[in-house]
Fold these 2 entries.
Entry 1:
Amino acid sequence: MLSSQPELDACYSNMMRWISDEYHGLNGSQYEVLETPPSPLEFARLVQISRPVLIKGYKVPAQTLWSNNYLIECMGDQKISVAVTPDGRADAITAGQDGREYFTEPHVQQMTMAEFLLKISSDKKGDVLYVQTQNGNLYPSGYFDPSSRDGSSECEKLRRDAPSEISWCSEALGRSPEAVNVWVGDSRSMTSVHSDPFENIYTVVRGTKHFTLFPPTEAWCLKERSYPHATYTCDTPISPLKLSPTNYPPVRWSSIINPDDSTTLPSGAHPIHITLHAGDTLYLPVGWWHYVRQSGDITIALNWWYDLQMRGAQWVWLSFLRGMGKDVMSGNPAQMNNADTTEKG
Amino acid sequence: MLSSQPELDACYSNMMRWISDEYHGLNGSQYEVLETPPSPLEFARLVQISRPVLIKGYKVPAQTLWSNNYLIECMGDQKISVAVTPDGRADAITAGQDGREYFTEPHVQQMTMAEFLLKISSDKKGDVLYVQTQNGNLYPSGYFDPSSRDGSSECEKLRRDAPSEISWCSEALGRSPEAVNVWVGDSRSMTSVHSDPFENIYTVVRGTKHFTLFPPTEAWCLKERSYPHATYTCDTPISPLKLSPTNYPPVRWSSIINPDDSTTLPSGAHPIHITLHAGDTLYLPVGWWHYVRQSGDITIALNWWYDLQMRGAQWVWLSFLRGMGKDVMSGNPAQMNNADTTEKG
C-alpha cells in the first residue's frame, strides 16, 4: 500500500498529465473536414485514428422535409416522450434545495408532436422542452436485433426520411447501429459534458449545434465524481417542477458544469470547438467527451450510435483513462470501480 | 514526490497488471485464422482490433521459385550482408567475458548468395549465419520515397518474385510500406523477444517459423532494462568471434532471454504460439512482442513493414505500456525516457 492517498493521487495525476500532454503534442487540436462523405475504407481509416471529423454533404431526406407542419402531419396523434426541465439542463449536475449537487434527470412528459412544437415555439420563458430520449426513438436496438420481437419506436413514422444505417459507417465497422435517435429542441437546451461507449455519427437537420470536445486522454480534466441521483418531478400537470432525490444508485459524472468557461478547466485541457450547421455531420469517436449547445429557433438532429469495438484494447484504454484502474494502484482492488456508482450516458 | 522508489514501483506494477488482466479478460489468447487474404476493408477492421491474424493463401511467386539454385543464379555475384554469431542469437542479450550482460549485435560479413547458402547448408556446427539486415534489403524506404535518389538494395535482383506492397494492407492503411525484408536462415537462428513500431505482414516462403507473441499490454512481463552495447567482431577472417563492448549508447531491451520457458515469466503473461508454414502469412500488429524460432533446413521469409499510425492515441498507448511515463509518476520528469538509452528493433 502507498503511504497516503494524496501520494497516490499525485502519482496518478502526474501520469495522466503525461499521457494527455503526449497525446496533445502528437495530435494538436486540429480536426479533419471532409467535403463529401467518406468511402467505407476511408472511414475505416478515420475510425482507427479515432479523432473527430466534420463531414459535409451527407444527405438525408429529413434535411429537406422536416418542417414543423410536416412533422406534425406525419406523426399525427403518436405520443412522444419529452424531457422537461426548468433550465434546459437534462441529465446534468444541479443543486437541490438542500444545497447538495445531484445528477438530475428530466421530468418526462408524453405529448404529440403538435403539442410539443406548439409549446416549444410559443413559450420561450417557462420550462424547457427537449426530445432527447436516446433510447433509439427512431430505430431502437430491437430494430437491428433479429431475435427481438420489438423494433417499434416513438418516432417510427419518420423512418422513411432517415435511413436505419449509414452505409459507409456500417461497412467500415462491420456492424449495424445499436440505436438511431432524433433530437428536437431549442437554444435553451444543452447537453452536459460526458462521453459515450459508442461510435457516433451526428447529423444536423435544422438549426445549429455547437460541440465542445475533449479527447479521452483529457478525462482527468473533467473530474468525474459520484453524485446522488435526482429527477425533476411535478405533483400535478400544472404544478412547478421540483428536484426530487431518488433511491437510485449514485451516478459518476463530470463535475465541470460549463467546459466553455476555461477558468473551470485545468491547464492541461484542450477543448476543440466544432459548429455544425444543417446538413453537417460529425464523426464523434467513442470515448470523446462532448458538451453540446444549440442555436436557432428549433434545432433537429439525428444520430447513429454504433457499439464500440470490444475486441482489442480500446475498452481497456478508455476505462483506464477514466480512472478505473486508479484505486488498484494502491494495492487495494476492493476500492475499485466504485461499485455503488452507476454509469450513465 | 512519492516517499520511495519501491512504492512507486508497486503502484506502477499494480496498474500495469490491472491493464493487462483487463485486456486478457476481454481478448483471451485466441487469434483469428483467415483461409484467404482479407479485402482492404476487412483488413482495416482487423487493424483496428490490432490482434495477430494467421492468413492462409496469400501467394507470392517467391514461394514456388526460391530454390537454392534459383537464388544463387538470380543473385549472381551481388554481395549480401550476413549476420554471424556463435550461437544464432543476433541482436540479443548475451554475457560477455567480463560476466556482464550486453545487447549484442552480430558480426556482419559480406558474401555472395552462393557462398552464404553453401556455408549455411554444409556447416551446421560452426558460426551461425542469418540474412536478417532489416534495412529493407528487398525494398528499402528510399524505394517508396519519391524524394529519395536511392531505392537500391542488396537483394533487388529478387524483386520480381515479391511485390513491393501488399494491396489489401496498403489500401487499408492508406500508405505504402516503410521497408520490405528478406530473411534467410536455419534452425539455429532465433530472434530475441522485442516489439517494433511497425504494422508487420510476415510471409514464410520456405521452412517453418515459430512465433511466441505477447500483446503490448504485457510489456511489463518482459522486463525491459538498459543494457550496454556490444558487437561480435573477429580480428581476422579466420579468427573466432568475440563479444566486444562498444561506445554506443545503452540499449533498452527485454531481459527475458527465452519466453518459451514459462518459469521465467510473471504469472500475468499469456504467450500466444503461432506456427507459420511455407505459404502462411502473419499479421503482426504494431507493438506486439515477438520471439521467433525457425525449423527446417533453410527457412526463408519476407516481411512488409508499414509505419504505425502516428495520429490518434496508438503511439502514446504503446509508449505508456512500455513504461515511458513511469518516472513521471514520481513527479520527477528528468528521470524520464532514460535519455541515455537507445531504442532498437
Entry 2:
Amino acid sequence: MKRIGVLTSGGDAPGMNAAIRAVVRKGNYHGVEVYGIYHGYEGFIQGKMKLLDLGSVGGIIQRGGTKLFSSRCPQFMEEAYRLQGIQKMREAGIEGLIVIGGDGSYRGAIELTKLGFHCIGVPATIDNDVPGTDFTIGFDTAINTVVNAIDNIRDTATSHENTFIIEVMGRNAGDIALWSGLAAGAETVIIPEEPYDLDEIVERLKRGESRKKKYSIIIVAEGAMPASKLAEMLKEKAGIETRITVLGHIQRGGSPTAFDRVLASRLGARAVELLLEGKTRRAVGIKNYQVYDYDLMDIMTTKHKADISLYTLSKELSI
Amino acid sequence: MKRIGVLTSGGDAPGMNAAIRAVVRKGNYHGVEVYGIYHGYEGFIQGKMKLLDLGSVGGIIQRGGTKLFSSRCPQFMEEAYRLQGIQKMREAGIEGLIVIGGDGSYRGAIELTKLGFHCIGVPATIDNDVPGTDFTIGFDTAINTVVNAIDNIRDTATSHENTFIIEVMGRNAGDIALWSGLAAGAETVIIPEEPYDLDEIVERLKRGESRKKKYSIIIVAEGAMPASKLAEMLKEKAGIETRITVLGHIQRGGSPTAFDRVLASRLGARAVELLLEGKTRRAVGIKNYQVYDYDLMDIMTTKHKADISLYTLSKELSI
Amino acid sequence: MKRIGVLTSGGDAPGMNAAIRAVVRKGNYHGVEVYGIYHGYEGFIQGKMKLLDLGSVGGIIQRGGTKLFSSRCPQFMEEAYRLQGIQKMREAGIEGLIVIGGDGSYRGAIELTKLGFHCIGVPATIDNDVPGTDFTIGFDTAINTVVNAIDNIRDTATSHENTFIIEVMGRNAGDIALWSGLAAGAETVIIPEEPYDLDEIVERLKRGESRKKKYSIIIVAEGAMPASKLAEMLKEKAGIETRITVLGHIQRGGSPTAFDRVLASRLGARAVELLLEGKTRRAVGIKNYQVYDYDLMDIMTTKHKADISLYTLSKELSI
Amino acid sequence: MKRIGVLTSGGDAPGMNAAIRAVVRKGNYHGVEVYGIYHGYEGFIQGKMKLLDLGSVGGIIQRGGTKLFSSRCPQFMEEAYRLQGIQKMREAGIEGLIVIGGDGSYRGAIELTKLGFHCIGVPATIDNDVPGTDFTIGFDTAINTVVNAIDNIRDTATSHENTFIIEVMGRNAGDIALWSGLAAGAETVIIPEEPYDLDEIVERLKRGESRKKKYSIIIVAEGAMPASKLAEMLKEKAGIETRITVLGHIQRGGSPTAFDRVLASRLGARAVELLLEGKTRRAVGIKNYQVYDYDLMDIMTTKHKADISLYTLSKELSI
C-alpha cells in the first residue's frame, strides 16, 4: 500500500487528533501517503480529502475535537453511496481506510470491508463503550473533566450543605458515572447496568446526615434516568431537597490527557501497521495494557461491560 | 478593639477563604483576636463561633467555597434575633464584625449597625453585582471557569459544526455573560441589561454560515432568558437547530484565580483596618484599582452597572 | 486607511493571539484589510506578510504564543533597513502598523514614526513592565501559571515540611513575584525594587517554626537574585536547608485567562481605531479600567512601578 | 483485627490522600478502627498517631501531598527502634500496618514483618518504579503535570522557533520521560534505560529544520543526564543553541487525576482486605487492570522495567 485514508466519525472525543497525527506520522515513517477524509463517511462518499503531511499534523496532539470533522451520514446506509465512495478512493489511489470512532462507525467500516475495501477501526468515544478494548480514546479525558466539575460543585455543596445530583453522559454504559463517581468520592452512583434502590439511597443520605455530614453528591448516568426525575423522587419519597447539574457537552471537549494521547498514539500507529500487513476488518484495542487487534465483526456479538467491581467498591467506600 | 468576628453569607464564591485568611492574619498582625462565625447570620444569632489562629487559616488561600459555611437565615429578619446575636457577641467580647458576601448580606449588616454593632462589608459573589466596587471576589474565577467550559464546548462545536447555546449565571447582572462571551469569542451574547433582537441574531448566524463558518456559540445570562427558550425561538423563527448547555453550579466553585486571591487579601485586610479605626457601616471595594471604602447605605440607592462598552465591542468583534 | 499591518515582537505572551484577532476583526468591521507581518520587525524589513481574513483568526483566541511568530532583529537598528521595510509596506499599500509587544518593541515603533510611518503600540509581555498601562497582556496568565505551580509545590512542602525557594521571571520588575507571592500565600517575597534583609527572612522562618509551621515558601524574582544564591546564604547564615525550583519558560505559555483575553480584545480594537483616526506614535493602555492612549515617547521618560502596597501587605499577612 | 494503622513514607505523591481515605473507609466498612500514623516511620517509632474517623478523611480525595506527612527516618535502620515502634503499636492495640510509599518504604515494611508485625504495601510514587505493579499511585498525575508544562513551553518554542530541553524526574526509571514525551509529541526522549546517540539527535533536529520545522522539544530524564550537559554537547558538537527548563518539584504536587484516585481507592481498599484475611508481607498492585497482591520480598529480586515499546514508538512518530 502506498496511500491510505483516515477519517473520524460519530461523536467527537479528545485524542482523535492525536490518533490522526499518529496515523500520518507512522504512515510517513513507512513511506506511505496519508489522506485525511473530511466529515466522516460523508467525505468518503464525496471524495472530500486532502494529503496530510508531517507539518499538517504539527501542534494538534494537544487539541480536543477532530481536525477532520465528524458528521452523521444517513446516505451511507445505502450500498450505492458506499460503492461511489470506494470508487472515489480508488480513483485517488487510496487502498485502505482507518476509521476512528465508536461502534456505530465500526458498522460502517464492516459494510465497506464487505465490498472489498480494507478497513481498520480505532476506538474513540468518551463513553468507553466499544467492545474489545479496555479503554477507548477520550474516556480518560472525559472522566477528568467530570471529576474537575464535581470538585467545583463540591466546594459549593460543602459551603451550603446541600445535596447535589450531577447527570453525566453514558446512554448505555455507566463507565463515566462509575469512574468519576469513585474518583470524586460521590456518595451514590446510579448507572444503567445496575438497578437502583431508592430506599437505600435515602437511607445513605440520612446516615450521612446523622453523622453530621450535611452534603452529598449523587452521580447519575443519563442512560439510567434524568437527574430531574431522581430529584423529584427524592423529594416525594423523603422530602429531600436537591440541586441539579447536567454536565452536558463540556464532557466531550478539552485537551486530551497524557493517557489519552499515549493511547491514541499507540492505537493509531498499530492501525497503520495492520493495513500495511494486508489486514482488513480488524479493530485495534488495548487489553491488559497491550495493544492487540481483533475481528471487527466481534462488535456484533460482544457487548462492552463496565467494571462492576468499581460499583461495589464505590458503595463500600461511601459507607 | 481586641476581638472581632468574621462570617460569610449568601451564595459562596471562590476567594471567600482567602478573604477570611486575610482578616485573621491582618487581625493578628495588629494583635487582635479573630473569631470565625459559622453558617453566616445563623451562627451570629446562635453564637456558633471559634477562635481562628494563624494555623487554622493555613492552606486555605487556594480553596474554593467557604470554610465558615454559609446559609440563608430567615430569623435574621426579626430584630429580636438580631439583638440576641449582638448579645452573644458582646458576651464573647466581640466588638465588631466583618461580613463577606453580596448585597443581600450587606442589608443584614446595615441592620446590625442600626443596633449599634460595628460592621464592615467585603464584597464576594461570582455575579459581580455589588454596587460600589469594580469587582467582587469570585467574579474572575467564575469567568475563567465559564471560559474553560466554552473552550471545551467549542472543540465539539467545531468538530460537528453545530450552534451551541450556553446559559451562564447572572440573574440581574450580565457581567459573567459579557466578560466570558468576549473572552471566549462568542458570536452572540444576551444579557438582562440590553434588549435582544432575534432577527439580528439570526442574521449573524446566517452571515457566519455564508462565509463558511459552520459553528456558532451563543452565551445567554439566566436573567435574560432560559437557553431552552432561545433554542425554541431560533427553531421556530429560522429553522436553526441548536444544542444547549446550562453550566449551573460548576460556576461557583474551583480554586480562586490569582486575581481573586489578591483582591480578597487586599479587601479583607482593609476591612480589619477600618474596624480598628473605629469605623462602622462601611464597605470596602476596589475602584480604579485602588482599595477604598464607602457607606454601606450606598447600596440602597446605587445600582451596579455592567460595562456596556464590552457589549458593543463583543458585537463589533463577532462581525 | 484601507490597509494596515500587525506584528508581534519581543518575548511572546499569552493573549497576543487574542490581540491579533481583535485587530483583524475590528479592522474588518471598519472595512479595513489587515495584513499579518511574520517574525516581528524581521518580517517588516523583508515584507513577509499575508492578508488575515476573519477565518484566519478563528479558533486562536484561546491559544498561547503568537500566530505571527516573534524574533529579535538586530538589522532593525539600522535606518537603511527600516526604510527598506517602510518601502515594502508602501508597495503593498499598507499605511499603518500595530506593534504588539513590550517596551523594546515600542522603541522600534518610535523609530518608524520618525520616518513618517504610522505606528500604534499594544502592550504585551508577561513582565507587566510597560510604563503607561496598569496591566500588560499576558501578565494575568503568567501569575496564574506561577500560582498553580506554587500550589503544586506547596503540596510537597506541606507533606515533607520543607522550605522551598521558587524563582520566577522579572528582570527589572517584581510584579510577577509580588502578585503570585501574595496570591500563593508565600512567607517571603524578594523583588528587585526593594532591598531584602536576610536577618528578617531568617527570623520569619524561625518564627514560623516556633509556632509549628514547618514549611515555608519563598518567592524570588530573577532580577533580585538567583534562587541558588539565596539558598546558599540561608544555609551559611542560619543552617537552613532549602529546596529550589526555577520555574523558567512555563511562565510564558498557556491558554490566556479571561482577563487577558478581554484586555487584548479591548486594546487591540482601540489600536485600530487610533490608526483610523489618523493618530500615530501612540500606545494604548489600561488605566483605572479604562482604555486610553498616550504618546509612545512617554516610555523613554517614564518607568513602570510595581505596586509596593502589595509588598507591604504580603509582609503583614505572612506574620 | 480490630485496629490497624496506616502511614505514608518516602517522596509524596498525588493520590496518597485518596489511598488513606480508602483505607479508613474500607476499614470502617468492616468495623475496623484505622489509626493514622504521622511522619512515616518516625511516627511509627514514636507512636505519633490519631484515630481517623469518616469525617477526618472527608474532602481529601482531591488533595495532593499527604495528610499524614512523610519523612526520612534514619533511626528506623536500627532494630531497637523498630521494636520500640512495634511495642508502641501493640500498646495501642494496633495489629497491622499499611505502608503507602515506594520501594524504599517497602524495605522498611519487610523489616517489620521479620519482627512479626503484619504489613501490607501500597505503591505510591510519581516515578512508577515499584516492581510488581503496572502503575504506581501518582504517576498519572505527574505525567499530566509534565505534559501541561510542555504544552506551555511549546507555545513559546513555536513562537520563537527555538529548541527546548526539558528535564523531568526519574533517577532510575525513564517512565515519566517516556510517557510525557510521547504524549507531548517531543522530538527526542532520553532515558536512563537506553543509550542515546548524539549524532542521531543532531540529525533529527536538522531533518526537522530542513522541512521548515523550526522548533523542537527534547525531554531528558534526570537519571540519564542533566539538561545542562545535553545543552553543552549540542552546542559544542553542532552549534545548536537550546533553552533549558528543569521542571523540578512541581511534578510531585497537584490534585490527583481521576485515574490516580481510582487506583488509590482500589489499592487502598484491597490492602485492608489482605490485613483482615490475616495476610502479611504482601504488596498490592495492578496488573492487566486487575488488582492483585504479591510477596513484598519480590521487590528485592525483581526490577521495574519501563515499557520500551513506547520508546520505539516515540522515535517512529517523531520522524
